[in-house]
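To close the chapter, one final illustration. This time we ask the reader to focus less on the individual chains and more on the assembly as a whole: which components sit near each other, and how the overall shape emerges from the parts.
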Amino acid sequence: MEIGERRKLVARLLAASKKEPLAEAEVINSEPDASFIFVEEHLRQYVLAKYMLPPDCKKDNILALARLSLEITLQLDENALRELDQATPCNHAKSETTKKVLLLYAVQRDLHLPENPAQLSKVKTVTELAQYVCEARRGFTGKNS
Amino acid sequence: MDEKELSIAEYEQTFIDDLNELEDWFLQYEYLLQISADLPRIPSERRKEENRVQGCQSGVWLEMAYTDGRIRVTADSEALIIRGILSIAVDLLDGRTPEEIVSYSPRYISETNIKKQISTDRFNGLSSVVDTVKQFAAGAIRRED
Amino acid sequence: MIKRGLDIELNVRPVYIGLYHEEYYEGPCRFGSGDALQPGFDQIMNRQLSEQFAETVKNAMPEKVKLLEPIFVERPDSWITGENLYETLLEGSAETDFYIVNSGIGRSGITLEFAQRVRKPLAIAPDRCCEVPIINAALRARGLEVYAARTWKELKKTITALRLRKVLNSTQLLLAPRMDSHASMSAPDTFLSLDQVTDKLGVRFRYINIHELLDQMQPLPEGGNYTTPGRKTNNITAEEIAALEPIADRMLAEAQEVHVEKKFLMKSLTACATVKKLLDVYDCSGFTMPCPDTCSTRRLNEMQFTPCMIHSLLNEQGIPSACEYDINALLAMVVLEAVSGNAAYMGNTDVVPYEDGELVLMDGMRAMVFPDIEDKTNLYHTWHSVHSRKLHGIDRENSPFGLQHFARDQKFGAVIRYDYNRDAGQVLTACRFSPDLKKLFVGRGEVVGGGDFDKENCNNYLIYRVADQKKYFDAQMQVGTHLPVVYGDFTEELSILGECLGMEVLRV
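The assembled structure is written out below.
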């Protein structure tokens, strides 16, 4: 590969890594009254991008997605687990739990949601996460659409 | 800019710059995979004990020739990540003069994230790939003399 | 109402104490990076981990544990802890028997204060590094009850032992003395003081005079029983006796061998049904009555039954029942049946020494079975006529059995017979308290065989092998003759129980 092509490759990789999840978050943020289906569709892509999973991945359980993401990570880097485990060594959080919580935290931040750890921590699937997002945007009053 | 007008060290710097700009290991990994796509495969019938690089954790095979005053190099491995790293070595050394190769000191592993991501065994194995080529180049110089 | 020991559950409550950081900072005690250091991250993580912890506890529990609603609290890194945190921790403490706490650095002080306030036994989750020794040292130095386990599997045994302690504490026994309500003519190796048993173990005793009990084993006559004239008592009724007929028929049909007439079997069943009825009336879950003391009244001869079937059938139903007014053995059977879910068997337990190439048999032992045993070392011999069809499980199908009579001349006293040879190789656990309640005998053996299946009277015995006969013997000398046994190895759990009760454990 020539130098010029490599430079383009670098640029492309950089753009994709940061852009994709944030882009999906921006789409959601730009539609404050979005339906559940809309939120769920883009939130799912956000999650898959965050976990570097293919866009057609059908799993809904977030821990399962985290595990899948970890499997890919481990193929790339055997030491990756240690970094995740270091995040909360005194709490003995499993790597997949840490990945899940990092995701929930990122969703809360990127979608500018009010903090509600009690409710957010109950979320187990991407579908439930979408429901949570919809409820959070409505101030946790009223039912899901 | 024609890569071959650059010295090995200058050309190597372009790889070091690319990798360091990517920062994140997942992106670096993706980069290495993509640049290795052009690295030709050594078919199984040519993977012999005499061209297998000793000390490498995964199988690594090296083919070298000295033609028209230039060293020809190709390499292959069973491991994707090693193929990616080898593709840089091949790109740097293939088609160079023996004198250029003998005076070259590799930096692209030790001065990038690659060193942190690979085991000591693999690091030593990859170092021995370059050493093997350098020895071959030194042998070519001696025969000329 | 009869509340069987084996139905009693230990109420266990998981407690998760989290810590959250109110600000972003790094330092010697912060290990994460990026988002993991941001305020808000910890609160989500703590709740996730609390849920995971509750699931771990659920999967790690032994049987007969009731898991109560987990408690979750968290403290900020400002170290300001409001009273509402302790109020939450103390919710439901009255019904909680045991806490399993998951906490960590920066929260040990909360665990300590909680333990001081709640005064209930607790353990730190075994997989919490650092916290286990921190809390154990802190609580033990303060005389608080705390348990340590290296693994969840180890903690499971501790929880089983604590459940047994609760069983003892919840046990009420019906005793039917003739003369001395403390000790019978044949079991002076019982407890020094029943008050001490109540004080130390929580066991309570209810009494019924043996004559009044025997009087109630027939329908109430006009004018009341002889011992309680004019009173309405809880005599067995004619209808209740009639209901025993199909039970007798079934026993007779299912027995491999029958050497007792139905009329005598009915008398034994009537006696058993009366005792069970009274257990229900007295709210007791275990029974014993004296043998020689009652025998010498001649009333059993007149009524034509022996107490053996009472004990056999009650034990088969998970209601401990012991011979000879041996309250000590009865309590051991309470514990053994509660831990195993199997019927216990008790009898005179004697060493069978092997000396100079020969077995040294005691009076009354049969030599017949012994020649078939190649290895004659480290044997023990137990015999009483209170065998059971539920040695392998109270909730399981009956094992094959025989029916025999006790009295040689008149052939009354239906008893169950069991062939222990079918269980050769089966591990068993023996248990008994020392009379001063300072020691607990916990023995392990392996069934070798048995004999006298076809003999009448107080026969049919079990032979088992122990690891070290001399040690077993020396330990037995501190506790008494009857060593009740159950199938299965529960020596670890019983040893922990002994330690929990502050006793020296004689584990042999």
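The CA atoms of residues 53 and 68 of chain A lie 8 Å apart. Residues 3-29 of chain A form the longest helix (27 residues). With these observations in hand, you are ready for the problems at the end of the chapter.
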